[in-house]
């Protein structure tokens, strides 16, 4: 059963119970109030009749039924307030009038001259009456008087009220059903949109948003749903990018292995199957050696990335400026021989870092800058201390990097200039390792470059300070 039908059914049940209880109570109260009025009216008429009978004179002189009949005829002419009446004594009935008198109940043993008894009875036609029974003294005799007061109209009114109640109840039920369903439809429309959103997301439409702004619980649920959908969409995009990177990694890794392995196998087969001169043998051996060294560098880089990704590092206090100056002094002669000017500017201070990983970061950044300067140039290295650690910057005046390549620089095996990188022995893993080292120091790696203007790489390390 749909939720809107449940709401409609609950509202109908609530309306039926409340309307039924309220209407029944009103009818019952109205009936009891009318019955009390009829009882009081009947009691007043009965007292008046008793008083009149006592005041008519010497009742013991009523020696015949005709005299009593004449008396009651005179009284009824003054205003007949009864449907039937019976007067009797211990010896027997003295006077009776009205068809309802045949249905009187015996009350002689329950009355006295001080009290009267009121009971209710109905005749053969279903008419309802109040029977008032009492006794009074007439000389030395006790006479009994029964009087019937018609209250059928009161019961007819109640029956008419019940009929009107049932008609109104049916009309109110129909109206309530329409209004309740309309309200439920309006209230559940937002839930229907949320349900549609769940189906859309289940079918792969992660961009769907419910966009319900009602300000109530459903509105807050919609906001949470949209926030969840946004996270799901972002996670799916991240997964797709991860899969694409993984596929590119596998393809690149396969290609990196295929090229040297093909060369190694080719020259090895040449040495094995052909008679070569000493110089040809030396060239083949040198080529096999260089390709083997290339495979070695590739495996070592992959091992470094694997270890950095899974190793729990311990940060300790070191001076990054001192490490940079020592590395620059060690590398400067080699760079100078290639026509590259290496300079550094370092602030004094200590921060928390892993020194071996920091050296590996510096070496890889400098190596990338060196490879970019094929015709010589300048490399500047600087260290600045920050409140959270330090900032390492390596800047060159080389040819720069195209803007579309900046976002992919840290991908494994990605090269801006593939042919030049292979000639220089690069595997395309240096910046991948750098990004991992910076991540282990809770920092970030940023690239700024313009073609023809050089490249600036900034590594922000946020391992903390003493």
Account of the protein in words:
With 466 residues, the protein is an alpha+beta fold. It is built from 9 helices and 12 strands. It has helices spanning 3-55, 65-77, 152-202, 217-273, 278-310, 320-337, 355-372, 418-423, 430-440; strands at 84-88, 93-97, 117-122, 128-138, 141-150, 316-318, 340-346, 351-353, 377-385, 390-396, 444-450, 454-461. The strands form 3 sheets. It has a 5-stranded antiparallel β-sheet with strand order 2-1-5-4-3, covered by helices on one side. The chain has a 5-stranded mixed β-sheet with strand order 7-9-10-12-11. A hairpin with a 5-residue loop joins strand 3 and strand 4. Helix 3 (152-202) runs parallel beside helix 4 and helix 7 (355-372) packs antiparallel against helix 9 (430-440). The longest helix is centred in the middle third of the chain and has 57 residues, at 217-273. The two termini are 66 Å apart. Residues 419-426 have low confidence and may be disordered. It is a multi-pass membrane protein. It comes from Candidatus Fusicatenibacter merdavium. It catalyses: ATP + protein L-histidine = ADP + protein N-phospho-L-histidine. Residues 185-237 form the HAMP domain. It is found in: Cell membrane.
